[in-house]
Write a structure and sequence with these properties.
heterodimer, A: 227 residues, Helix Hairpins, 2 domains, five-stranded mixed sheet, three-stranded mixed sheet, 26% strand, B: mainly alpha, two-stranded antiparallel ribbon, 3 helices, mitochondrion (chain A)
Chain lengths: 227, 116
Amino acid sequence: MAHAAQVGLQDATSPIMEELITFHDHALMIIFLICSLVLYALFLTLTTKLTNTNISDAQEMETVWTILPAIILVLIALPSLRILYMTDEVNDPSLTIKSIGHQWYWTYEYTDYGGLIFNSYMLPPLFLEPGDLRLLDVDNRVVLPIEAPIRMMITSQDVLHSWAVPTLGLKTDAIPGRLNQTTFTATRPGVYYGQCSEICGANHSFMPIVLELIPLKIFEMGPVFTL
Amino acid sequence: MAAPPEPGEPEERKSLKLLGFLDVENTPCARHSILYGSLGSVVAGFGHFLFTSERSCDVGVGGFILVTLGCWFHCRYNYAKQRIQERIAREEIKKKILYEGTHLDPERKHNGSSSN
């Protein structure tokens, strides 16, 4: 989860998120260099003693400041498209979970190997145990195996919601009447948090998502397979 | 502000953010690129001034941008190669641990094919 006042990305828990962090670093370096150049130009403009007001054209400079941004955009677009297509790769998921958004909770369905269906409500502050996270912890977590491709089918029963888990690099809209799909493979066990990311009413901020990722051996012994 | 590191976990370095957003301490290759870029800027600007005795700030800034960008791409390329190699090594170690002694042992397959 994010720590207080965090502005950067969370550590990656999936290969796609690792790629996204790499791309973010790449874009940030390009932005830094452009900002440095602009700051320098600003400094020169503010401190120059030259006051020629009759300049009417500067063909070479105009050519440079047209072509250079185009090159920069290509340098940013190529890795971006690479990751975009990577997220759409077919990877034969081992498990499919349905996630249905409601006002204001999530319903999860494990229907591959049985009929496990449960609701996931945020724990009200009065029901928090010591160590629980306020506005993040839920009564029933989504328990999933690590190192196995998982398909999430996301929809909504009422209004727009969005199922997001930043550490996995996931954010998919839950749209009523539509089934959206996202796949991921978690690389390390742990408890990971997300929050609804599409305004959906009064308690939009109070319908978090909690994934509990565990080793496959322990997952196979769990309730999904003993139904 | 960050959670304290667990024992055995490498401590996250204090972040130094250039222009308020580029974290050079915790972004791989950033510190290396900026330092080389600064050096390149000084060398280019000073060298230009020595040879021409003209204003060299523009050359210095241009040198900074080009050297930083060049070092950045070079370092990130090597970093990406290293990550891929680490991932392959991790997978091979895992496979070796899982399949050692069985008919799926990669070493047995390799020895078998080389003796043939």
